[in-house]
Design goal:
single chain; Rossmann fold; 40% helix; globular; binds NADPH dihydro-nicotinamide-adenine-dinucleotide phosphate; binds 5,10-Methenyltetrahydrofolate; binds magnesium ion
Length: 297
């Protein structure tokens, strides 16, 4: 193996520790803990796992966790009514509505109902707009976690060629904006991109956020490239397994022989998402109490 492993899990554990320390100090000053509300509609098995691990991490970081589980047949009006109740609840600093929503619930309408001051996911149009024009606001957790790992490894990203594969509102687009803000030269690839391997081969930095198991191959990579694998894909169980393996969007075993550095799945970007969510929630809590958010968070 030639690539260095980018240990997102360890980085995230450090960040959670720092957040936990600041959260304890916040509770002292404010006379209450910072609070995160997570709303889960329906009983999606994968989402259950995220919600549980988020709840545990929140409590371990000296913050409060409020979980709201709603039936899969919840109406949009009921869901928005809950969001409005959480907007008005002074114990709640951050609101996360787990996506995707089941059935024909309108995700944009539900996100629009979240108070932008509690939008710790950074999915509200106000947050997206602020990121786009370079004003302070909540940045989506997954791309922010990725840029933290990249800056930790490279320091200055100025002039580097970055290729982001995927253009979703929650990963690809904000990721590209953060790389642009860091003065990288950014290309966004997607399902209509011609010659994706050729585009990826130019990249010093590859961020894969596609949702296709092991799609990015070793021979697409420029030797020495830094590879950030956002994908979370569950393979079908092999013989003798009850649960399939979790893999990313990059063919890790091949890519690790060519890349300079690579994030594993699991243990890469996923843990960063949760750590950044707690960080964003603590920042929101400071804002709600009129306190200056801690330096260097
Ligand atoms: N680790 C973490 O914390 C998180 C992980 N994820 C994971 O990241 C992945 C991406 O998530 P998300 O952005 O929500 O996914 P979306 O499905 O919303 O977006 C996928 C993007 O990939 C593009 N795409 C699909 N097929 C191809 C292809 N063959 N070639 C090139 N581009 C393609 C799509 O293009 P087009 O726009 O043209 O359709 C689209 O822009 C998933 O595996 C998800 O589970 C997501 C969030 C957090
Ligand atoms: N409103 C909203 N915000 C989100 O941020 C959001 C969402 N909806 N819907 C689903 C996706 C996905 N996502 C993950 C977070 C952490 C891990 C994670 O911690 N993964 C571990 C492994 C977990 C396991 O083993 O099951 C890892 O990669 O090491 C994965 C995926 C957040 N998302
Ligand atoms: Mg999506």
């Amino acid at each position: 193996m030639s690539a260095e492993l980018i240990d997102g899990k360890a980085f995230a554990a450090d960040l959670r520790k720092t957040v936990g320390r600041h959260a304890a100090a916040f509770a002292q000053k404010a006379g209450r803990k910072a609070g995160l509300a997570v709303v889960l509609v329906g009983a999606d098995a994968a989402s259950e796992v995220y919600v549980r691990s988020k709840g545990k991490a929140t409590i371990a970081a000296n913050m409060e966790s409020f979980e709201h589980r709603l039936r899969a047949d919840t109406s949009e009006a009921e869901l928005i009514a809950l969001v409005e109740k959480l907007n008005a609840d002074s114990a709640v600093d951050g609101i996360l509505v787990q996506l995707p929503l089941p059935g024909d619930l309108d995700e944009q309408a539900v996100i629009a109902a979240i108070d932008p001051g509690k939008d710790v996911d950074g999915f509200h149009v106000e947050s997206a707009g602020r990121l786009m024009v370079g004003r302070e606001g909540f940045v989506p957790c997954t791309p922010l976690g990725c840029i933290m790992l990249l800056k930790d490894r490279h320091g200055d990203l100025s002039g580097m060629e970055a290729v982001v594969i995927g253009r979703s509102n929650i990963v690809g687009k904000p990721m590209a904006q953060l790389l642009l803000d860091a003065n990288a030269t950014v290309t966004i690839a997607h399902s209509r991109t011609k010659d994706l391997p050729g585009v990826v081969r130019r990249a010093d930095i590859v961020v894969a956020a596609v949702g296709r198991a092991e799609m990015v191959k070793a021979d697409w990579l420029k030797p020495g490239a830094t590879v950030i694998d956002v994908g979370i894909n569950r393979l079908a169980p092999a013989e003798g397994e009850t649960k399939g393996r979790l893999v990313g969007d990059v063919d890790f075993d091949g890519a690790k022989e060519v890349a300079g550095a690579i994030t594993p799945v699991p243990g890469g970007v996923g843990p960063m998402t949760i750590a950044v969510l707690l960080r964003n929630t603590l920042v929101a809590a400071h804002q709600h109490e009129g306190l200056e958010p801690p330096e260097g968070l």
